[in-house]
Amino acid sequence: MEVTCLGADEAWDLFREKVGEVTLESHPDIPALARIVVERCRGSPLAVSVIGVAMAGKSLVQEWRYAIDALTLSAAKFSGMEDEILPVLKFSYDSLKDERVKLCFQYCALFRKGEHIWKDHLVEYWVDEGIIDGKEDRYRAEEECYDIIRYLVRACLLADDKHGNTVSMPSLVRELALWVASNFGKEKENFIVKPNEKLGEVPNVKDWGQVSRMSLSENKIKKISCSPVCPKLRTLLLGYNNLDKISSGFFMCMPNLVVLDLAANIGLRELPDGISRLISLQYLDLSHTDIKQLPLASLKELKRLQHLNLEFTGFLKEIAGISSLSNLQVLKLYASFDLDINLVEELQLLKHLKVLTVSGGDAYVWEQLMSNPRLASCTRNMYFYECEAGETGISIAATSSRLEELTIYESNIREIKIDQSSPKTMCNFQYLVKVEISECQGLQDLTWLLFAPNLGWLDVRESPQIEEIISKDKAAKFMNGEATMMPFLKLKHLDLAYLDQLSSIYWSPLSFPCLMKISIFGCPNLWKLPLGSSSANGCNLVIHGEEEWIEELQWDEEGTKEQFTLKGRKSEPVAAYPQNQSELEMLRKRVVDLEEENRSIKQRLERIERFLWQQQQLQQARAHQQPTTGMLPPQTVIHQQRQSQRTLPDMPSKEQVVEGVSEQFEKSKKLKAMCFKEWIAGGPDYTFLKYEKPSQTTFYINFMK
Question: Residue 215's closest CA among 267, 275, 174?
């Protein structure tokens, strides 16, 4: 591993920035001692940052002398650059506030080098493994986990992404975590960490009895036939492999296994034999697999199971008897088994349930779910599709205060109502961060979003009757004469597309302190945005739209337009053949821009095709029909076909230039119209889909790669 070193002056400047002038000036001897500390960091930017943060606020000379002694003694035992820096970084590890935080830090090393780790995944692992106790109060435990993540970020042991959804572990810090987890290199088989190493089988382990955590995710393991004896194994991550067969003997001797992750093994069609022997299992992830049935008779033996993830299991026929898993705290059924009245009745029997994600299209069933305050308060992710609610609309209970994501697709819903039978103070969806609506007939406005103060992502498209996002008249009725709440203060992305009747987002300029992007296409009656000269508040807000629309936008104040970055796109394809090399280069650049814009859409489309294919299989299975020849192939086949067809000519012909641009443009327009982002959640292009919740927490979204 290459370590880039800083010069003495650069290292000192970085250290001063991290430790703060207040600390350095707290005693006349501290600056000289601080320079010795910087020397011990050996020019490593990471070590300088980490140690600087660790020493911030330490105003006693004795504390600085202790730090120098600790750094000197530990580093003296090693010779190489890396071996010297790891003990230096260990000082920051030793400074962590308690053993639980240290275990959480070590856990982050189970993921591949450079991976953006979803915060909500870390939270779930830590709580369900019991590192952070959530038996009495899961919500409080989750808050504590997010606080630990922020603490590790402040300590420079994790790096936050710009959207706040994921964290990554610097390579050298990851080495530190693995070094510490292996008892400072003495017990290297304590942590077996081999993600994304193209393994075709489970690696050989000299002493399975020493393994406490193993990560083999993102490999190419198809079958597992070994029968290891693993009395200490607590965590086993096998997600994103090609697994289709696991021998019954594999789980025979894992009495202390707590976390088992089998997500995204598409070939996995049945629950592996032997799982019922995992008497300590508390976390089981089967999401994005092709599992067809859930042997609840076997799962009932898992008395401690508290987290079951069945999202995107399109082949799953039924889950009758799920109430027998009496200790479940988390049940995820998004894009899986449709919610029906029998399932609602079973959910009511799960007395410990705290987190629920569901999907379906029966308006009556939704009303029954919302009428149960406890189930409503558990629901974090709701997905309506093909919902025929008509004139009555749908209601969201005021007790759904933990709702994080709402998706509505291909539905007939006249109105989204808020149950205001309770006092208004309860109508606060403070955790709702993402709303996506597509192809919804009858809906005229989204005024209820006034009650979502932390909304970060709003995507509305192909809903022809929507006239306003926030209606002034309805807002006044909601508030009963009280001051209207200011909406969209946390909004980061606003996408509006193909809304024929939309004429207003809000009736006056708003403050958008977090807004980064507005994308508006196919909204012919929207000529004014709720933007004033101070709306962006210093943020670099980018507005995307058709060139003609951008040019015709109306602004209340002169000079407001200059406060934003406007990016227009022609609404008609190029028809003229380029006359010179300059025009040709411009066309090439435009094609590249369109290809870049379409890349993420194509990835989402592939996932949607996969989801539709699973739904077709499920419907045919329910109707006892044989598969038809016209079904969409699995995602892997789609991907291989498209990769094999991809070409990049060096010099396009006249027809390729003109027709290529036209085809790319039309394809972009169609794909934008048909792709509904929230059918799935995942992959590298979905890092922008998460947002910070109120100060105490962030929100969850699972994803598929």
Answer: 174
d(CA 287, CA 282): 16
CA dihedral 92, 97, 102, 105 (to 10 degrees): -70
Distance from the first to the final alpha carbon of the chain: 28
Antiparallel, parallel or unpaired: β 166-168 and 117-118: antiparallel
Sign of the torsion formed by the C-alpha atoms of 575, 581, 582 and 586: positive
CA distance 299 to 226: 22
CB contact set of 495 (below 8 Å; sequence gap of 6+): 458, 459, 460, 461, 519, 520
Cα distances from 5 to residues 14, 55, 93, 695, in angstroms, run: 12, 21, 21, 36
418 vs 445: CA distance, rounded Å: 13
pLDDT beyond 70 at 294: yes
CB of 113 closer than 8 Å to CB of 185: no
Classify residue 551 by its DSSP letter: H
Beta bridge partners of 565: 542
Question: What are phi and psi for residue 526, nearest 5 degrees?
Answer: -100, 105
Question: What gap in Å lies between CA 612 and CA 316, rounded to an integer?
Answer: 14
Q: Distance between CA 245 and CA 222 in Å, rounded?
A: 7
pLDDT digits (tens, 9 = 90+) for 447-466: 999 999 999 999 999 999 99
- How far is the C-alpha of 70 from the C-alpha of 92, rounded, in Å? 11
pLDDT at 78 over 50: no
> Angle at CA 645, nearest 5°, toward 639 and 646?
90
Report the relative pairing of strands 434-441 and 405-413 from DSSP bridges. Answer: parallel
> Burial level of 490, CB count in 10 A (0-12/13-18/19+)?
buried
pLDDT at 540: 82
Encoding tokens for residue 170?
């610097």
Cβ partners under 8 Å of residue 329, min gap 6: 134, 138, 306, 307, 352, 353, 354, 355
Q: Could you tell me the two tokens for 10? A: 């650069």
- Rounded to a whole number of angstroms, the CA Rg of the chain reads 28
Token pair for residue 193? 């960490």
Instruction: Please give the structure tokens belonging to residue 218.
Output: 């993102």
CB-count exposure of residue 655 (10 Å: 0-12, 13-18, 19+)? exposed
Do the beta carbons of residue 174 and residue 161 sit within 8 Å?
Answer: no
Q: Which residue has the tokens 């300059």?
A: 582
- 379 and 355 Cβ atoms separated by less than 8 Å: no
DSSP-based three-state secondary structure for 396: strand
- For residue 283, list its beta bridge partners: 259, 307
CA 379 to each of CA 143, 432, 475: distance values in angstroms, whole numbers, following the listed order:
17, 11, 26
Tens digits of residue pLDDT in 204-250: 999 999 999 999 999 999 999 999 999 999 999 999 998 999 998 99
Are residues 543 and 565 in contact, defined by beta-carbon separation less than 8 angstroms?
yes
Q: Where are the beta strands (DSSP E) in 535-686?
A: 542-546, 565-569
Find, among 411, 318, 406, 316, the residue nearest to 362 by Cα: 411
Quote the distance between the C-alpha of residue 295 and its chain's center.
Answer: 30
From 84, 12, 86, 102, select the one nearest 48 (Cα to Cα): 12
**What is the identity of the amino acid at 408?**
I
* Residue 245 CB neighbours (<10 A): 13
Q: Using CA of residue 368, residue 371, residue 375, residue 380, what is the dihedral sign?
A: positive
Model's pTM, two decimal places?
A: 0.74
Residue spans of beta strands (DSSP E) within 244-312: 245-246, 259-261, 283-285, 307-309
Q: Pick the closest to residue 355 from 702, 634, 73, 94 (CA basis).
A: 702
